[in-house]
Amino acid sequence: WLGRSGQHTVVFGEQLQVVATWTQSDDPFPEGTYSTLLPPNYWESTVSSWPCYQPGDVNGDCHVNGLDIQWFIELLLADDQKCRPLIAISAADLDSDGDVDVDDIPPFVGALLTAGSREVDWLQDCNRNGIPDVNDIANASSQDCDHNFIPDECDIGACDPNDPNQVWCRDVNSNGVPDGCEPDCNKNGIPDAWDIANCDPNDPNQVWCRDINSNDIPDGCEVDCNKNGIPDSWEIAQNLVDDCNANGVPDECERDCNDNGIPDACDIANQTSEDCNGNLVPDECDLLFAPPRGSLDCNDNGIPDECDIANCGDPNDPNELWCQDCNGNGVPDACDIAANVSLDENENGIPDECEGGQRGWLGGEFEDPAEVMEAWAEYFDWLARQQWLAGSELSGSERFGLMAKKMQQLGLPARSWTMPVRRTGGQ
Predict the structure, then answer these.
(1) Mind listing the pLDDT tens digit for each residue in 45-65?
(2) How far lies 346's CA from each of 116, 328, 349, 350, 390, in Å?
(3) CB count in 10 Å sphere of residue 41
(4) How far apart are CA 52 and CA 221, in angstroms?
(5) Which helix (H) or strand (E) holds 406?
(6) Beta bridge partners of 36
């Protein structure tokens, strides 16, 4: 969708989150501003849970085989792949074009055939117990954790522990299982259990290999958003940090746009901050920025304009004219009139275009679509350079007036300034 947007911004946050925001005027989205978020530590919590990722291993069991076929077909036929695991889509997207489609079928079949083409000596008896290795494995008298048709004890016995290319077949903890088959969350070639067993918990340089919560995972592999060497889950369980919304993320790592020490989500849930437009951002933070990043407050009443409009009363009540939006541009009519976006020749508080009259600002006429795109780009560039933050001496109506004036200068047409909002009070 970013490729089809009028304007977009992608930001990589301090906590490893990726945020994309874009304006959209084409189908399938209605006109407006949209955003999407990949949460903190997405890679550690999602992708690394597939320890042996490889193209074609769609079900994540570390093998490319017939068990992947059903997963591949489901992805291929899915109406909406966005809700599927990203790593599964990546494993099934064998032509690396960003989605799973018919073009991925030939390389997927090729991956299956390649994985199954290994020649096996059905009479080999590497452990010399008088039983062919394949029978040992089939009868579970020998294990074959890596499915190479060779008993694990033979892999270990033939391994050169000093060869860096053979770390997978070592057995540093002498448990009869090749190291490559054991959990190794930090990919250092040493099983996690061995890292933990040989760790000095009192050495500050070895906090990464501790296992403070005794879950057999080195602390360095667990999510630690505040980078203090202690897994977030342990800090929360021991009440060392707060987690007001019980989402497994310490409050200090969550967004707190108003710097009141309470995550925005909890501010809103506890009604210590209003969120009248339902965008999961406290209203006071919406008002720190101009659209499309934030909200207008052209009448300086501390409420985003879209909420004034959504909860406005009877349009026939003269006391409610201040919050009406008869032309549907997301700004109260009174502000449109004050900024000359709309005319009000009879001074009745209703824009003339709503009474069959002339509109105050019709916008320019561009013959070349590229020209209007260039004008919009110039407008957004200008908007990004304005210092409209908390403490600005400009009033809300002055901000709106400057924005409208700049668009008029560029010949841009009048437009909706805000996103549709959810009405309050059950309306």
Answers:
(1) 554 445 566 778 888 777 788
(2) 82, 20, 8, 9, 36
(3) 19
(4) 16
(5) helix 396-409
(6) 20
Tokens, residue 10: 């992608």
CA distance to 14, 26, 185, per residue, from 282 (Å): 20, 28, 38
What's the Rg (C-alpha) of the chain?
A: 30
Q: Which residue in 329, 373, 383, 374 sits closest to 351, CA to CA? A: 329
Q: Decide which of 110 and 214 is more confident.
A: 214
CA dihedral 362, 364, 368, 370 (to 10 degrees): -100
Burial class (CB in 10 A: 0-12, 13-18, 19+), 116: exposed
**pLDDT at position 243 over 90:** yes
| Cβ atoms 148, 121 nearer than 8 A | no
Interior/surface letters 128-153, b for 16+ CB within 10 angstroms, e for the rest: eeebebbebbeeeebbbebeeebbbb
The secondary structure of residue 30, as a DSSP letter, is P
What average pLDDT score do residues 225-244 get? Answer: 91
**pLDDT tens track for 296-344:** 888 888 899 999 998 898 888 888 888 898 888 888 989 888 887 888 8
Name which residue leads in pLDDT, 37 or 216.
216
- Phi/psi of residue 54, nearest 5 degrees: -155, 150
Provide CB contacts within 8 A for 203, sequence distance 6+: none
The answer to whether 319 touches 349, Cβ cutoff 8 Å, is no
Structure tokens at 32: 């407006």
**Residue 419: band (very low, low, confident or very high) from pLDDT cuts 50, 70, 90:** very low
Coil, helix or strand at residue 121: coil
Residue written as tokens 């668009």?
Answer: 407
Average of per-residue pLDDT values in the chain: 81
pLDDT tens digit string along 334-365? 988 888 788 888 888 898 888 887 776 666 66
What CA–CA distance (Å, rounded) separates 195 from 173? 10
Q: 17 near 36, Cβ under 8 Å?
A: no
Q: Which helix (H) or strand (E) holds 333?
A: helix 333-338
> For 72-95, how does the pLDDT look when each residue is reduced to its tens digit (9 = 90+)?
988 888 877 666 666 677 788 887
Q: In angstroms, rounded to a whole number, what is the distance separating the alpha carbons of residues 282 and 278?
A: 9
